[in-house]
Amino acid sequence: MKLTDILLLSLSAALVIVGTHQTIVGGITFSYPIFMLAVALLFWYKYRKNNTGQETTGDIKKPALPKTKKRK
């Protein structure tokens, strides 16, 4: 996981917490943009994670099978 991915996920979680607090204090109409930003960051995180997974799939090699000794 890269630093950008960690920041996106952490910022999204923090915005959910802030949005929950703002919902309690000011109502859902006041906190709606905060929740939408949190969801957008989650989508961006998932998009980045899916893209990096597709690029590296071709680079993964299967481990070689161990050679067995022949019995006489």
Structure description:
Residues 52-72 are annotated as: Disordered. The chain crosses the membrane at residues 30-47. Keywords: Membrane, Transmembrane, Transmembrane helix. With 72 residues, this protein is an all-alpha fold. The protein has a domain at 2-50. 74% of the residues lie in helices and 0% in strands. Helix 1 (3-26) packs antiparallel against helix 2. The mean pLDDT is 87.
Biggest β-sheet, characterized? none
Question: Beta-sheet strand percentage?
Answer: under 5%
Helix content: over 70%
Rg computed from alpha carbons, rounded to a whole number of angstroms: 22 Å
Shape: rod-shaped
Number of alpha- plus pi-helical segments = 2
| Strand runs, count | 0
Q: What is the N-to-C succession of helices and strands?
A: HH
> Mean of residue pLDDT?
87
Low-confidence stretches: none
Q: SS-based structural class?
A: mainly alpha
> Roughly how many Å apart are the termini?
50 Å
Quick take:
The chain crosses the membrane at residues 30-47. This protein has 72 residues and is mainly alpha-helical. The protein contains 2 helices and no strands.
Secondary structure layout:
Blueprint: H1 3-26, H2 28-56
Helix pairs in contact: 1-2
Keywords: Membrane, Transmembrane, Transmembrane helix
Region (Disordered): 52-72
Transmembrane segments: 30-47
List keywords for this structure.
transmembrane helix, 72 residues, transmembrane, membrane, 74% helix
